[in-house]
Amino acid sequence: MAGGPPGAKGRIRTRTPAELRRVRRPRSHGCWDHLYAAPLWPLHGANLGTLLRTCDAVGACLVVPRFPWVPEALARGNTLRRPACVHWTGDPLRWLQRQRDRGAHVVGVELADEAVRLADLPAARRTTVVVLGHEQQGIPPEALDLLDLAVEIPMVGTGASLNVAVAGSLALYKLAGLL
């Protein structure tokens, strides 16, 4: 939100759509090949739609498996009604290995002994993949071996973790340097 004119205490002025268009990219991006959200073992379609919206907000691409229900979930979630950058994969483990082979930094959002706290995660300086696991089982053990880093989102409540859309959104904003 933008503040009012100098000296106008207590007044907050929101930006107009025209002002926002001037400071943001003029259209949807193509593949920026820099930041990827990879919910490779999704359970709930609503989470994919929410994550797709976050990808647009931070300039990231979404990588999803070719499950029959995923295209509909993405279509429902794309409230911008513009094309979004979506990559499809048939084999999540092979896709992750290819990303590592091409030099991408692979970061998993997971509760692990070696995990760094989200607050300590630096902004991405090279191509980075944010791996998000299954909403109930997390990232499969065979995929944990493909991670360069695990990041944990601290919680003080009684739940064990956040849903994929929320966890992924927080990690994407941090890695994009927007938090």
UniProtKB/TrEMBL annotation:
Spans through the membrane: none
InterPro entries hit by this protein: Alpha/beta_knot_MTases (IPR029028), rRNA_Methyltransferase (IPR051259), SpoU_MeTrfase (IPR001537), tRNA_m1G_MTases_N (IPR029026)
Biological source species: Actinacidiphila glaucinigra
GO biological processes: methylation; RNA processing
Methyltransferase recorded as keyword: yes
Designated name of the protein: tRNA (Guanosine-2'-O-)-methyltransferase
Gene3D superfamilies: 3.40.1280.10
PANTHER family in alphabetical order: RRNA METHYLTRANSFERASE 3 (PTHR43191), RRNA METHYLTRANSFERASE 3, MITOCHONDRIAL (PTHR43191:SF2)
tRNA/rRNA methyltransferase SpoU type domain residues: 46-173
GO molecular function, one term: RNA binding
Pfam families: SpoU_methylase
UniProt entry tagged with the keyword Nucleotide-binding: no
Keyword annotations from UniProtKB, A to Z: Methyltransferase, Transferase
